Known about the structure:
Elements: H1 6-27, H2 32-38, E1 49-51, E2 53-54, E3 57-73, E4 76-80, E5 86-91, E6 98-99, E7 104-108, H3 111-143, H4 152-184, E8 187-189, E9 194-199, E10 206-207, E11 212-218, E12 222-229, H5 230-233, E13 241-246, E14 252-259, E15 269-275, E16 291-307, E17 312-314, E18 317-323, E19 329-340, E20 343-348, E21 356-357, E22 370-372
Parallel strand pairs: 1-22
Antiparallel strand pairs: 2-21, 3-12, 3-16, 4-11, 5-7, 5-10, 6-9, 7-8, 9-11, 12-15, 13-14, 13-16, 14-15, 16-20, 17-18, 18-19, 19-20
Amino acid sequence: MNKPSTKSVVLAAVAVLAIGAGSYYFLAPGKPAAAAAAGKDAPAPKPALTVTTALPESIRLPIKLAANGNIAAWQEAVIGAESAGLRLTEVRVNVGDVVKAGQVLATFSTDSVQADVAQARASLLEAQANAADAAGNAERARSLQSSGALSAQQINQYLTTEKTAKARAEAAQAVLGAQQLRGRQTQVLAPDSGVISARAATVGSVVGSGAELFRMIRQGRLEWRAEVTSAELGRIKAGTPVSVSPASGGELAGRVRMVAPSVDPLTRAALVYVDLPAAAGKDSPAKAGMFARGEFELGATDALTIPQRALVVRDGFNYLYRLGEGNRVTQLKVQTGRLAGERVEVLSGLPADARIVVNGAGFLNDGDLVRLGEESKPNQAPAQSSPAPVAIK
């Protein structure tokens, strides 16, 4: 009887070990094969995050055009001296004072003017006396014209003297009127109601005719001169409401008075003149020369909006996460528009019936599995609110 060879024994041992290992792998408890043989499913994947969702809402948003510009006086009056060589004796107003039309702002010395008025009045009386004497002589010459007692040359001389004396009396009357007018000009009067914006008058100074004493903002009216590009100029009309925010704070309600008829060829921008409320002296938030921002109210349109928290900005683009089947999210690239408080307008890239992730959107990636919070279960979707105007701050 032949004995088995060593090689055959080794091969048989290896086969037995392989069969034993395979049996243990497939039949051991807790293994996939055993679980499959027992009819059990594989473990379900875990959600990446618990989120809340919402539906887009259609609301009515205002259309506004922002612009920058300077605040200036509607009209600025320059008040100067009308008489020369007079000394300023009193200044009654200062910068910021509100004045009325005809109010006395300053006074000049009247001593020299009164002396000139007295001299002119005396000259007038003298001229009137000479005119009366010449008129009497001319009347007598006329009565003797037919008698031949006086020659024609003498009669003509008396008549000429009468006319000359009358002209001198009228000239003296005009001189007296000029001196009286100069006397009235010793009081500097406000030409209109308004606010004093500058003062150059100093008590004791002697100023020349036409020298500037005060500057005044007529009627206290200010205007905002907004710079608007030529591309946007056609959207603005006279009467358009404007909200102006001066650099000092606060907000003023204005209205477009007119649009400049020309455009600056260098900047390609035009000025839009906006009337502001009348300045209330020193308490007004707007001052002439101040920089201000403003927004032109151009109407309102319907807009599809989402909560601002749902928007994710990555690599310079705006994204939303849409909830799909099986609670998996899909990344959507969208284009945004106007802001309305806590909501933002979506111009493109979002269907109106898409449910989007709000809280937790910034921690998600495309295809992630999420769990819905209690406030955003599909059977608890918030009801659509009726569209209402929303002001953009």
